[in-house]
Amino acid sequence: MRRLQPVLDLMNEAVHRYGGVVNKAQGDGVMAMFGAPQPHEDHAVRGCLAALAMQDDVKRLHDVDLQIRVGVHTGEVVFQAIEHGIYQTYDAAGANVHLASRLEHLAEPGTILVSRETYAVAKQFVEVEALGEQAIRGLAAPVEVLRLRGLQHAPSSGVFRTGRRLSPLTGRADEFATLTAELENTRKGDGRVIGVVGEAGIGKSRLCFEFAESCRSKGIRVFEARVLAHGRATPFQPVLALLRDIFGLRIKEEPPDVSRRRVFDRLAAMPVSDHLAPVLLEFLGLADPHRPAPKLDPKARKAQLLDFVGELVRAAPRDNVTVVLIDDLHWIDPASEEFVEALADAVVGTTTMLLVNFRAGLTAPLMQRSHYRQINMAPLGPAEAQSILRDHFGTDPSLALLSRNIVERAHGNPFFLEELMSALVERGDFEGEKGAYRLKGGIDTIPLPTTVQAVVAARIDRLDEHAKRALEVASVAGREISLPVLDAVAGLAKPELLEAVGHLRRAELLYDVPPFEQRLIAFRHPLIQEVAYLSLLHERRRELHAAVAQAIEKLFKDRAEERASLLAYHWEHAGEHLKAAQQHMRAAVWVGANDPSQALRSWKKVRELLMHQPPSQMTDYLKMMACGQIVNFGWREGVSAADAQVYFEEARGLALAMGDLRANTLIHAAYGRILANGGSADEYVQRVLEAKALADTGTDTSVQVTLKAILCHALRLSGRMSQALQMNMEAAARASEIVKSDRETLGFDVEIWLTAMRGQTLVMLGRGSEARPLLDRVLQLDGSQVDAIHYVIPSLAYVDLAWSEGDVGLAQHHADRAFALAVKSGNPYLRVYAQASRGLSHLVAGRITSSIEDLSAALDFARTRKAGLENEARILADLANAYRLKGDAAAALSAVNEAIAVAVKRHARIPECLARSVRADLLLRSGRGDEAEEGAKELDRATALLHETGAMIFAPFVGGAGKTVKASRSSNEANNI
């Protein structure tokens, strides 16, 4: 018995976990029922889940001699409750009970047998192996028997398949008809995005569920994801849920290798690069240790994932209609929103419908798409609300006044209606059963709450102490609650907790989230969670947030990076700002690989949380990291030099105080880079030189070589081409000394960066023949393995080279390539350079109007997004040249004067050289003596800059202006004669 009792305990717990009752203990086994006394529409599924849970739990005892066998059958039984004074037991009898017992006897040890009737109603959730028909003792005819193998992924619509009986969908015929019509358009290859919009509780999710069920009944595949109420604290949660649904991944119950195989099998049927798989697996939390994802620029990594999401839609067979459903879009986090937008773009011209629902007030870019259709859900009319009440209450005359009162208070909101009805039923003021109630007393004896919050609060108040405690913890844990976390925090004995959760289920405050093996429960509506949470005193909230965070850390050590933002949320609300900052840092590092914008927000949150924390070694380190990374990510996201200075000064001060030489040098270099974006190129050089001087006092050769590479970039932007080339060659010769951590900090392949920059520098130096092999070397690489910016640099350099040589074809080819890659990457910095380059290619081809349009667009985009502003002076100079060639001298002079002003302010010598050459030509051609004299001076300045920078690519252009000077002087001499 000592060995048997733990097994019996586990079997009992598994039954209770899934809402069943153990009605009989039979020595070395138990008999359990599901669907009675508490009815469950999914009773067969619960029985199968309990059986599987029993087997798994017994295996965890690690006693090889202990095995159990289980039989499951579905059918009607004679059921009765037996009173024992202070408690009840239950009994069941009939042929179906006998069949379940015989299946258990037939099963081999360690297996589960189910009947055809059980499988018929549970097949959406289970996997079986058919064993054929078998003779059963006591039954005349053989019975079809199947072995239960495991579970299969259940859709998120399962929320509506569990718990209470649903009222008929009422008053939504027009909306349903609209969805059906749009589905037909989609079937014809005109994919649509449909937004179902309305207030909380209006029935958006229910309408989408009914439509999804209708689609499934027609054989149409539906993929789903729900956005949770705390979605903004958990980046990518709905995206991960959707992708795992599409791939059929069961992360928790299958080995990672199996999940990875599912992904590989799906990718094999798609036209995607082999290099995508490691990136996608890492994103899904299935990183293969033997095939790690390449280190890419975060923007490039995210671009690959966004592109894949689109390809996933476009690759679907056109003869199969697919529906993608995203529930509660209004809670979407910014990181996930971009993926939803990618889906919205991808459905165009496909047989896929994207169906989303959200509360009124949300504004999303997808709503501006031409293929977007919106369904606005209005409140139900009084007659429709009365219909719902009749289905729930019945038609007894005693309910007439009450029903009118409820309809008036609910204002046509189905959720409000159902909550008001449930509150009255649970209060015990009715006789009879659902659909046939009678009011016990007069209407005046029922104190109906005036708001839904009051209704929910009143319902919570009527719970027993254990149920209240469980609900309090659940309200703090979130919309969806892990039962192990609830168990760890609630402070209740296991039987008490099971009873409390059962009570909350029966009160229809919580429901089980399928697939049930994940042991999640959820609030039936966010308003229930909000009311329960607001009812807590602030100190109690802090205590529970801390306890929930501790439980999550202890229980869920896998995929910790995914949970870091959620942990940060709980620690922050617990008042533990240091712990919250540590988790935000962890989240920033994780999400930064895919979304720099989200990473920047997380780093800013780290600093915010630590602003009022007392100094300590850990606090100072976190502040330094946060401020340094804000500076590091800033240039990508358009942070101005003025805004970045505050973070730089703080990071530098902390690094100095901590004696962290390495951090201090890299902070200087990062700040210099952000200064170059709209600031001074010379200051960028100075910052890197300061960092280099600091590094040279130490022995860290990796940082020293890294700074040489960065200095090459700074010198190039400041127009010191020969020095940049020399520094590039020195860095390239020692690039192998750069350690892995510094390469990861940079986020790209240093050698490729140096090669691309060297080719670009040689083009500026007028050494095109030497540049071509270097540029071609980068062009021949696999683009999926190269940072997007570095992969485009050769094309930008080739357009400059083509401009100097007048090669229209070369310019057009590389400008088109650069722009296509920029658009694909979604990188604003790259977009500025690529569009400006395309404008220059139009200039080479003589398409002056197109050139002006592209250059103007690049200029506007750079200024709006505050990205790539170090190229502003060059864009203005090229724009001035385009206006000059068009013959618009006034516009040309305006643009060139601005170009010179910007170039001088930012110490951008090469654009200044070009701009002064353009201005010299304009003034010399004016025909006026004073302007001609000024033009000659401009030419002298341009010539001096040409030699100072070494940018001999502009020598022919400067020389052309020189010819204009000679012609002007000859003309003046002739006039004097």
Automatic annotation (TrEMBL):
> Quick check: keyword Aminoacyl-tRNA synthetase in the entry?
no
Can you cite a GO biological process for this protein? cyclic nucleotide biosynthetic process
Q: Does the keyword ATP-binding apply?
A: yes
Q: Record's PROSITE patterns?
A: GUANYLATE_CYCLASE_2 (PS50125)
Specify the Guanylate cyclase domain's residue ranges.
1-104
Q: Keyword annotations for this protein?
A: ATP-binding, Lyase, Nucleotide-binding
Fetch the InterPro entries from UniProt: A/G_cyclase, AAA_16, Nucleotide_cyclase, P-loop_NTPase, TPR-like_helical_dom_sf, TPR_rpt
Gene Ontology molecular function: any one: ATP binding
Give me the Gene Ontology terms describing cellular component.
Answer: cytoplasm
EC numbers listed for it are: 4.6.1.1
What is the protein's name according to its record?
A: Adenylate cyclase
Question: What is the organism field in this record?
Answer: Bradyrhizobium elkanii
State the organism's lineage: Bacteria, Pseudomonadati, Pseudomonadota, Alphaproteobacteria, Hyphomicrobiales
